Automatic annotation (TrEMBL):
PANTHER family: PETER PAN-RELATED, SUPPRESSOR OF SWI4 1 HOMOLOG. It comes from Hanseniaspora uvarum. This is Ribosome biogenesis protein SSF2. PROSITE patterns: BRIX (PS50833). It comes from the Eukaryota. Residues 287-299, 424-457 have a biased composition (Acidic residues). Residues 357-392 have a biased composition (Basic and acidic residues). One of its GO terms (molecular function) is rRNA binding. GO terms for cellular component: nucleolus; preribosome, large subunit precursor.
Length: 457
């Protein structure tokens, strides 16, 4: 039988991501109003580009989906952060962003003051920048500005945003792989701005090379006789040149050109004389240099190496530019909770409470925790009782099955013994029935038959 062909190019086996050290995230929208808002849908899609590559870019939400459904699915997928966009029912303009750390929190709630999509930012650019797929294959470089570790709520925000992306090892990471920058800036009024930039690297051109090229172009234009430059010696103002444009390139102008040519010839003669003098001086210097060449060869070699190294360093210089690709968000911190989308309120920007109220809330919270633990213990005890009852029921069933098997085996053995006894009894009964019959009954009958025909004869 022929061996079945294996398709290796198109049917590639899927490898499961077993590396749990890489943080992963999910960005979703929840609520009826949020599901109807098309601009919010586009904002969620653009925000997923910020979280890429370790995020679900093509995730689709449904109206019947709830927050609990996503939280349950996060654990098998090794998701560490959950972003949710919601829209309030009281005011349609209020949009909130929640960032939760799985599985035990904390949760930070922001109010979205303003936002701009990727397409909105591209409209105001002079040049359209192509954001290809290779741009989002590596995580961005995170830059946080204006936050302080001394303030507890800001410390929580710093730790949450820093853990969204895997840490960068500067010894192993290549600079070319970093193609994006995520800037999270806290302003003086407390608002947090999120912006995303693309890094563009270009070779730096030396200014000396540019000057040399420009000088060469000017010298070429000066030597080109087809392009005659008008003389401005006798002109008092630029207006005189414009107004006397009709007289341009006439006999007077030609005489001026001839005068300029004569001046050029005199200058050329002087330059030739100076060149000859320079050649003589160089010849004398060469004679002196030949005597000192042996001593200065090493020094010249070192100088050449230094010059070459300087040229290479100048040629390897590169210019870095940042182009904003979006989206752009302006957020204001609302509150911080201790657990995942629930729990004790650690910080609230609008509501301030006294120490007594905080103590009372702490007592209530502790009481809730105690009752929760008590219910858990009761549930565990009930589950243990149910398990024990099931085990006892299984044992009873097994015992009944064994008893039934024993009974069936005993019945089969009894039926076999009865069959043997019945066959023996039947044989003995048949012998008893024919015990009274005489042994020579057949001979008597035959004798009677023989006697009758003799009588007839």
């Amino acid at each position: 039988m022929a061996k079945r062909r294996s398709k290796n190019r198109t049917h590639v086996p899927v490898e499961n991501d077993k590396d749990t050290s890489i943080p992963k995230s999910i960005c979703i929208r929840l609520g009826t109003l949020a599901m109807k808002n098309k601009s919010l849908k586009q904002l969620v899609n653009d925000f997923r580009l910020i979280l890429s590559p370790h995020t679900a870019i093509k995730l689709k939400e449904l109206n019947k989906n709830k927050l609990k459904d996503f939280i349950v699915m996060c654990s098998p997928l090794n998701v560490t952060h959950l972003f949710t966009f919601t829209q309030s029912t009281n005011n349609d303009n209020d949009i909130y962003l929640k960032l939760g750390k799985l599985h035990n929190g904390p949760t930070v709630t922001f109010k979205v003051n303003e936002y701009s999509l990727v397409k909105d930012i591209n409209k105001f650019k002079n040049k359209s920048i192509s954001t290809h797929g290779l741009l989002f294959q590596e995580p961005p470089l995170l830059v946080m500005n204006g936050f302080k570790n001394d303030i507890p709520q800001e410390k929580i925000i710093i730790s949450l945003f820093q853990n969204i992306y895997p840490p960068i090892n500067p010894m192993n990471k290549k600079i070319e792989d970093i193609k994006r920058v995520l800037l999270i800036n806290k302003q003086e009024d407390g608002t947090v701005e999120i912006r995303q930039y693309m890094i563009v690297i270009k070779d730096l051109i030396n200014k000396k090379d540019i000057k040399a090229k420009n000088i060469d172009k000017l010298l070429r234009l000066k030597d080109d006789k087809r392009r005659t430059i008008p003389s401005l010696k006798k002109k008092k103002d630029i207006s005189s040149l414009v107004l006397e444009d009709l007289g341009y390139m006439t006999s007077d102008n030609e005489s001026e050109i001839e005068d300029e040519q004569i001046i050029k010839e005199e200058d050329e003669i002087k330059q030739e004389i100076e060149a000859e003098e320079e050649l003589l001086a160089k010849a004398e210097e060469k004679v002196e240099d030949e005597i000192k060449e042996e001593d200065e060869e090493e020094q010249q070699a070192i100088k050449k190496q230094k010059l070459n190294d300087g040229e290479k360093s100048s040629s390897n210089k590169k210019a870095i530019k940042l182009h904003e690709i979006g989206p752009r968000l302006s957020l204001s911190l609302l509150k911080i909770e201790s657990d995942l989308f629930k729990g004790e309120t650690l910080y609230h920007s609008y509501i301030k409470k006294t120490s007594k109220e905080i103590q009372e809330l702490q007592k209530k919270h502790d009481e809730k925790v105690r009752l929760k633990e008590q219910r858990k213990k009761e549930q565990e005890a009930n589950l243990q009782k149910k398990k024990e009852a099931k085990e006892e029921k299984k044992k009873r069933k097994e015992e009944r099955r064994l008893q039934r098997k024993e009974q069936q085996s005993n019945q089969e053995e009894g039926s076999e013994d009865k069959g043997k006894s019945v066959s023996e009894d039947d044989v003995s009964s048949s012998e008893d029935e024919y015990a009274d019959v005489p042994e020579d009954i057949d001979s008597d009958l035959l004798s009677e038959i023989d006697e009758n025909p003799s009588d007839e004869e």
